[in-house]
# Entry
Amino acid sequence: MGLFDKLAGWLGLKKEVNVLCLGLDNSGKTTIINRLKPSNAQAQDIVPTIGFSIEKFKTSSLSFTVFDMSGQGRYRNLWEHYYKEGQAIIFVIDSADKLRMVVAKEELDTLLNHPDIKHRRIPILFFANKMDVRDALSSVKVSQLLCLENIKDKPWHICATDALKGEGLQEGVDWLQDQMTQSNQNNQNMRS
Amino acid sequence: MELSSDAGKWLDAHYDPVAGLYTFSPCMDLADLNGDGENRLLVGDLGSGSLGMKLKVYRGTALSSESALLDLPTGLVSFFMDLHEPRVPAVAVASGPCVYIYKNLRPYFKFTLPGLDVNSLEQDVWQQAREGQIDPLSLKEMLESIRNKADVPLSVRSLSFLSLEPSEMDEFVQLHKQQPVKRQTVITCIQTLKKSTSDDDGVSCLVIGTESCHVYVLDPEAFIILSKMVLPSAPTMMNVTGQYDVEFRVTVACRNGSIYVLRRESEKPKYCIELSSHPVGLVRVGKNLVVGGNDESLHGFTQKGKKLWKISLPAPITTMATMDLPTRGFQAVLVGLANCEVHLYRDKNLLSTIRTPDAVTSICFGRYGREDGTLIMATKGGGLLVKILKRTAAFEDKDSTPGPPLTQSVRLNTHKKTKLYVDQMMRERESGTVMHRAFQMDLSRLRLATAKAYLKALESSLTPMSSSLSEPLKMNAVVQGLGPSFNCSFHHTGLSLVTKEEHWLL
# Structure
């Protein structure tokens, strides 16, 4: 870490990171973001997001600004307008919705082939959500169905989660934090 | 013909070739059975042979429940029968003479069609059999003579009795003779009709078509007959639109190969469309009807029966359904064909072709699960096929029929109007009369000059005329151009068969 970052760390100023939270409707994006917020700021009722909402939460070294996008079909064309700002992507999948796994794959492929994303080494965190549902697919199966092994030029990670209980979320966020600090260091190394 | 491929528009969500689903389009519906915003697929499964009739409910890719049906289903619809919360629809399954109503997938009510008049002779014969006055063999003879003569057909009981072997007859008579003879008709088609509001979750009446050529409208709560209409033939397919309390149209395809349109407050059909072939599919797109004929053709009609278009298809039609996407304002017709293809037509234009692994017998399009544009198909071999319309899919309205070429409508790159042209036009508009008079004056002068010259030629014996009628001289003058300079050409045709041409630039 550079001297300034250390100084910022002592002063309680954390590095800001913009994250896009994407995924189909009813996959649990808002619930996951809600879970990541401090417990006194969490909302009790989660309603379907209209358009998008901006949420903030902090980890030990980073301050995340999350664009929680609506997953409903008619709002999905809004996603691409925020690709430029995003420094990381959280993609949430409803592991219990086998029927719409193709739709999730389609949206993911569109995302990966978008000019604003395609040539950037942007970390993608997948949450295979709703693991509490009885006939949910495993995270391995989900990554198979979404053909995640084909993503060669971007760091990615998949976690099995249950957003209602908050299981598995921390692991994913830790990975994301590592990725972000690593890329910061890389940038600094390149600069110096 | 170039086929637009389906790969760019549809996502293959699910295919189970051994789902064991034997059904046809009227027995498929989509409904939010639990009120949780997730639509289930309801199927009245015909089973195989006379066994295994079932009411099946699919959630996502899996069968979530099934319950046995007593008889072969002829139609299945989901409808809201009351305004109670939570708003969950009931399911109506038509089979034989009854409509079975399910609420929360439990049997709730059974509606039976009113009985028909029984032949009095038949009744007497069975009365005698009950009292033991006649034996089964003479009963058979008497029933056969009634069947041949009477104008009122026999009841189902007598017909099944006549089909028995003599050894089984006695047992059959013993079993049935105590019950009174009843003659029942059967339901051929069932649809829903909104009662008073056009909301998606408005209360709906059931509309039933029967073998006895009637159409009944049932009250959604009390299941009493609200309205009864008569058709000239037995209905096979039905399409209903409108609201019962306001105005409605029931379009019925009948077994005599005609389509009738029934309206509110008229017991008899209002319009009749006579088809050249038997209808095998009937769907409504907006205000128009699309009818599939068994001669591999598709016809478009207005709702008053005016024919709009006809196209021929590459294979016989197996089933038809409407594709309605209100969120995108898109309506089209899905036609299942025997050559394992499903065609999508908007009016007479083929928009997309979907190839299926097996011939499709049943098509249902709508919201399934949480996805609005889902196409569900059951195949001949009992498979279940689910496709989802891509969010980015766009259908091009390409006219496949030969017509005027596209270049015809391309505008030519003509020059802009010059100032001179506009000035000239203004002048013509303002002093049109003066110009006309000047022209007439000049024309008269020209004529006078011509006549003088002609006279002079005659007087000086220049013989300006052809000397004999068999060798004529022809002159043709053509003026080309709009001015101020003209091209004037004269064609002389003389006896020497040589054409002289002169061009004068004026």
Summary: Chain A has one domain: 11-183. The mean pLDDT of chain A is 87.
